Amino acid sequence: MASVGYLADDDVASAVHLATALERPLLTEGPPGVGKTALARSLAGCAGRRLVRLQCHEGIDDARALYEWDYGRQLLATQLRRNGAGEVSSIDDLAALFDESFLLERPLLTAIRSPEPVVLLVDEVDRADEAFDALLLEVLDEAQVTIPELGTITAEVRPWVILTSNETRELADALKRRCLRIGIGYPPRDQERAILTAAVPGLADDLSVQLVDALDRLRAATLHQPPGVAEAIEWARALMVLGAAELDDETIRRTLPTLLKHGRDDEAVRAVLREATNVVRPRDGAGDAPSPS
Amino acid sequence: MIDAIVGFVALLRKRGIGVGSDRAVLAARAVLLTDLTDRDATRRALRATLLLHESDRELFDGLFDLWFASAPFDITDLDVPGSATDSDAAAAEPTEPRVALEASAAPDAYVDDPSEQVAVAADDPSPKRRGSGAEAAPSQAETVSRFGHSDAIGDPDASTPADTADRTEAADADMAAIALPDADTGLDDIAALRRLLDDARFARDDVLGAPARPASALRPNSVLANPFDRDEQRDLDAVVRSMWPQLVGAAGWRRRPSPGGQLDLRRTLRSVAASGGVPVTVRRRAPVTNRPDVLVLIDTSVSMRPSVRLMLHLAHALRRRPGRIRVLGFVDECVDVTDVIRHGDLAVALGGLLDDAPGGPLDPARPSDYGAALTSLWHRYRRLLRSSTTVLVLGDGRSNGRDPGLQLVTDLTARCRRTVWCSPEPAGAWSFGNGEMAAYAARVDVAVSVRSLADLSAAVDRGEFADLVDRPRRRPA
Q1: Total count of domains within chain A
Q2: Is A260 domain-assigned?
Q3: Which of residues 66-125 of A touch B (CB under 8 A)?
Q4: pTM, whole model, 2 decimals?
Q5: N or C terminus of chain A with fewer C-beta within 10 Å?
Q6: Residues of B in contact with A129 (CB under 8 A)
Q7: Cα of A291 to nearest chain B Cα, Å
């Protein structure tokens, strides 16, 4: 996956390998911004599969996740028949209204029916209600969807399924049981440097060391939302745009919006970064950050 | 290899990590796909297939190290007191190696004959020769040294004075000896092994990011000096399974939020009036996500000390239900402790939180102030409350002469679906002294006296927490 810009550690690589070899869904759990969604995207990229994404939210149901009948078109079809060939009389006519052509596919059904292999990403499954966990079971277990009017549709090519969760709630054990599971945490320093260097070409070594050090401190502090890898990359990019050669108070002030995702963290983040820059760079000033272009 | 996995799964089950047969089969398939000579790869494969909860990870890794690195020992030894005869017998006549995997995993370090294996380990304990077993040793040694003498933890009914002394010595010994026991340390191995497994339950500080804390600093004064054992935990889980639907209501009773947000009638009418009604534009409120189904408030003050153990375990068990829950602790100010109990072991997480908080908002040595706590709840956490939220208060309602905040309780009850209050005191004592519990009881939906797990179980059986009457929605006064 390194070819598509995703540096997976051994744990992740092994879990992905097993999930694809055993054809089991892979549940990834961890704090926001550690690359759970990016994992699915990269997997699709390197395997040459299409990515089908289902973004979960509170209140999501089968009509948003599986399929829905296109009531508008069904009504129109009824209207057309009445105008053309008279009344809708036979039971066959009724059955024709529940034809696949009136079916609106939602991501889960799209992934199941897709003739070419796909990667199905069920993103932030913890945001959905617990009833939704049960809805996923059939898809995850058998790679099939049952539509009462049409019967059971089974996948010709079993999709690779990746589920992500930020653990805002515990998922049902029945759902977990059907998946391989991996917890993704913040990467160790060396790996994070490698990620930053790969994601932000041209990032100076010294700067990346400073960044990783500052990120370590931020994550050790008690923040409402500690910066993930995604924020780290964003921060590094912002520093590149500003042409900063090292971290100093001025560059930190300018790039703070990339890191600060929670109003209440403002003071804490500033304090930690001030400390970090003092340790990394004991001498004062010398920050020659040009104005943003 | 199959035997090794089956044995490992049995060991996991014995230590409370539930693994179904299907997972065991999956684990076997996964192991077949991995490089058997790579110990870490095997660990990763088993972790991905057998570990469902991140909070069990450290225990899992410890068990993996012990099972796949140690010389043969019978799993039944883990549960029975380590009698000298059993252990000596086991040490004297080595049995069939239980870990077939190990032989293939490190062919240089291990030989098929267990006695030779022991000899290799005893003769040359260098990390290089010990191969994969050596990798386990530092972490285990670290675990034990971090938590100090483990006689403070030892199971009292499982230890005689004599073997307590043995255990202490064993705990002081390098745990590498456990990873690769030699023939002379059979008794100590089993005893120390059992304690190590117990200790692993407490080794969660890394996950929580808390500083390492010796066991002795936590235990003597801890409100959780005596965490629930497996039987109690199982009973509590069973009670909570029945309690949860009573708290949140049956699925059909709750109104499902519309995916696009609820209809905002006022804004819709305004927009319709502006355009004369054609076309009609429906305005919706942005859906608010991640509000909890159940909000638990735990009083951790000094007067709750006898019962806070039950209350914290209850909150912990509720957290493991697949629903949304937030847990706030308070003495005179509410503090969100949901994340603390999400991953960690309860004893370390909350016990440490309470013990390390002298003068802090959760200091268990201070008297409670319900008025101040409810005010902070109202100001800081009101956004968590919605009409489908059940508020579960675990406290004795003793505000120690300070403002009890009765009006806030009335508002809370009006705003939420249900307000349930569990007090550890018997109902007859609610008005004694400076108790305000009787006044609170009149303002909440349900007030129950819960002093023990049996009380809680009885209350759940009676359906005390269930909303049997479909009441009209109340408005705040």
Answers
A1: 2
A2: yes
A3: none
A4: 0.65
A5: C
A6: 256
A7: 38
Q: What tokens does B225 get?
A: 């000096």
Domain boundary among the residues A116, A149, A183 is at A183
Q: Which two tokens stand for residue A154?
A: 């089974």
What span, in angstroms and rounded, lies between the C-alpha atoms of B11 and B23?
Answer: 14
Among A117, A151, A183, the domain-final residue is A183
CA distance B144 to B137: 11
Q: Tens digits of per-residue pLDDT, A112-156?
A: 999 999 999 999 998 888 888 888 998 888 888 888 888 888 988
Residues of chain A falling short of pLDDT 50: 280-293
- The shortest CB-CB distance from A59 to any of B22, B29, B287 is to B287
Looking at CA atoms only, how far is residue A288 from chain B in angstroms? 36
> Under an 8 A CB cutoff, do B259 and A183 touch?
no
Residue A174, domain extent: 2-66+106-183
Number of H helices, E strands in chain A: 13, 9
Residue B381 DSSP symbol: S
B195-240 pLDDT tens trace: 554 444 433 333 333 333 333 333 334 555 566 777 788 888 888 8
The CATH topology of domain B234-254+288-461 is Rossmann fold (3.40.50)
- Interface probe, candidates B23, B290, B342, B381, chain A, greatest A C-beta count within 10 A: B290
A193 in the same domain as A176: no
Distance, CA of B21 to CA of A136 (rounded, Å): 21
Closest alpha carbon within chain B to A56: B259
Name the phi and psi angles at A104, rounded to 5.
-95, 115
Burial class (CB in 10 A: 0-12, 13-18, 19+), A264: exposed
The full set of domain ranges for chain B reads: 2-203, 234-254+288-461, 260-287
Q: Do B258 and A60 touch (CB under 8 A)?
A: no
Question: Does A178 lie in the same domain as A133?
Answer: yes
Q: Which site among A24, A54, A64, A129 would you substitute to test the B interface, given the most B Cβ atoms closer than 10 Å to its Cβ?
A: A129
